[in-house]
Amino acid sequence: MSTTIHNYPFNPCCFEDLPDEILLSICSYLSQVNILDSLLNLNKRLNKTIISYRERIFLSHLSYKDFYHLMNDYLPHLSPNVHYLYINNCGMLNTGKIFEQKFDKIDRQFPLLRELVFNQIDIETLENLSWRFNTMNCLSQLNIDIADNRISTLPVQFDEFLCGKLFSVSNSFQSLILNLNQTRFSLQSINHKCLNIRHLTISVKCLNDLLIIFDNFSNIEQLNITIGCNSLSNNDTYSYEQLWWKIPSLTKFNLSIKEKELTSHDNVISSEIIMKIIQNIYQLVHVKFTLDITFQFDPQFDITKDIYKNKYFPYANGSLWEQALQRNDNRSIHFELYIEINGLPSPLSRRVSNSAMFQVDKTNDVSLNSLLATTYSSSYWLQKNITIQCFSITSQHVSIYTLPITDSSLSTTTDMIEQIITATTPPSYLYIKNLSLDSSIDYYYSSKLLITKLFTRFPYLTYLKINGQLLLPSSISTCSNHLRSLSLSNYSFSSCCELLNYLPKVISLTLPNLDDTIISKNTRMKPILSITRLKLTTSLCSVINLIHLSEYFPNVKEFYMTITNKLNQHLRNSDECEEVKYVLQRFKYLRFVEVILPIKQTADLVLNWIRMLDTNETICENNAASGFIIVKTWLKN
C-alpha cells in the first residue's frame, strides 16, 4: 500500500490582498490617528480605502499626544480635502482655541468643507471663527453647541452679533442647528430676508421670534423650534392666513413649547394660535407638537381643575387637531403629539412645605382619558391609525402622547413609568434612547422599579438618569448591552457598584450626591472596568473619603468633580488641595480633569493648586460672584 503526498505551492496572503470590507472592519477598532499613522500614503489603493478617515476629521476625546500629532502632522496636509470637521471641547482642553489659533483662515485652509460641527464650544472661539462663515462657499451644514459653563457669560449683545454672522445674506450653508442649551435665542435684530436657510433648529424666547422666521425665511423646508414661556407669548394681530405663501416650502414642522418653571399660564402660547399656524402652512407633510412645562412651586400659583380643562386640554384635543391638519386635497399629514404637564413640586419643596397642600381630591380630578377618547374617535383618526396614550398621577401630572413614539428622549417620573410598564396594551418604545426619571414623591418612599422590566420595555436605552432605586434580580445577568451613560441620584456607592454589574457596557457614570459617603476598600467587590468617564459631586469635607475610588473604577480617563460649599465651606489652605490631588493621582490612566472648587479670591492658593497639577495644559476660570473656580487639566500622559 502506497501513499502519495501532494505538495501544493504556498501563497502567503499579504495585508494588501484583504478586501476593503475586512480592512474597514479592522479600522473600526482603531482611532483615527492610528489609522493615519499606519495606512496613509502607503499606496493609492489604501488611500482610497481610508478616504473617510482622510476627509472626515474628529477632534474629540483625544489624548494630549494624539491631538497635537493630528493637528500638527496631518491636518495641515489633509485640510484642503476635508469635507467634515467635528470640534469637541468636552473631555479636551481648549480644543477650539488651539484649532482657531492654527487655522485662523478656516475658509482658505478648508476650502471644500461642507459640514462643520462645534460641540461645547467656547464663546471667544465661536466669535473669532464666525467672521469666516460668509466666505466658506462650500459649507452646507453648520452645527453649534455652546458650552454649558459659558452660557452665563454670554455678552449682552451676543444674540445680535450671532444673528449678523449666522443669518447673513452671503452665507452659503443651508442647514443650521443652534443649541444654546437652556438659553433662548432672540431674533429681533433680523430685518432682512434669509433665503439660503432650508433646515433650521433653534430655541427662541417667544412667539414673535417664530413669526420673524415666518416673515424672513421664505425658503425654509424643515423647522425644529423650541419656544420658551418667560413672557406673554400671544400675538392675535399677526396675519396667520398669509403663511401659505410666506413659507410655501415648509413641509416638516417640529414645534416645542418648554418651560421648567412656569410663572404664569398666560405665558404659554394659546392653543388657538397654534392651530391657526398649523392650518395655514398648507404644504405640511410632517407635524410634531410638544408641550413640556413644569409649574413653578408657589402656593399662590393657581392650579385648578378648570385651568387644566380650559387651558391645557385643548392642546391635546383631537377634534381641534383634525380641523388644523385637514387639507382640501385629502393629503395625509404625519402627526405626533407629546404633552408633559408637571404640576407636582419637587421632593425638596414638598419636604419644606405643608404636604397637605399637594393632596388632590380624586372625586374632583379631571378624567383626561374619557375626554380624549371622544375627540380621537372620528374616521379621520381611524384612517391615520393613530392611538393616544394618557397617563396621570391625578390631573396634576399628565403625560399624553401619540403612539408609536418616534422621539429619542423621554422625561417623566418613577410613578408614571410604573404605569407605562404595567400597561395592558404596551406601546412600542424602541425609539427611546434617553430616559430621565424623577421621583414624584420623596425618593425614600417612591416605588422601586425592577431593572429587567425597565429594559424589557426600553430595550435600546443608551442614557439613563434616575432619581430612585432599581430592584435587582437575585442572580447577576446582563440587562442591557446598549446603555452607555448612567446618572444615579440618591444611590449608595455600594448599590451603584452592584447595579453596574448588570450593565456591563456603561462607560460614563454620574453620581451627583456623594456627600458623607465613605468609600472603603472592599475586597469582595470587583472593580468596574468599563467606566472611563466619571462625574461626581461631593462636599469639601468628604473628599478624603474618596481615596479608594480608583480601586473600583481603575480605567477612568476623564474625571469631573464638583465640590460643594455646604455650610459655607471654602478651600482655605494647601492641605485641602492635597486631598483633591491625592484622589486624582490614584487614577493610572487619567487624561482629562475638571474640578469645580469652592474658593475665595486667594491668588496664592490658586497658584499652588495649579502647580500641584504638574502639567503644561491647565486653565483656571475664577467666578468671583459664586465663590467657585473651575480648574481644567489635560494630562500629557
TrEMBL record:
InterPro entries referenced in this protein's UniProt entry, alphabetically: F-box-like_dom_sf, F-box_dom
SUPFAM superfamilies: F-box domain, RNI-like
Segments forming domain F-box: 12-61
Superkingdom field: Eukaryota
PROSITE patterns in the cross-refs: FBOX
Ranges in a coiled coil: none
Name recorded for this polypeptide: F-box domain-containing protein
Organism: Adineta steineri
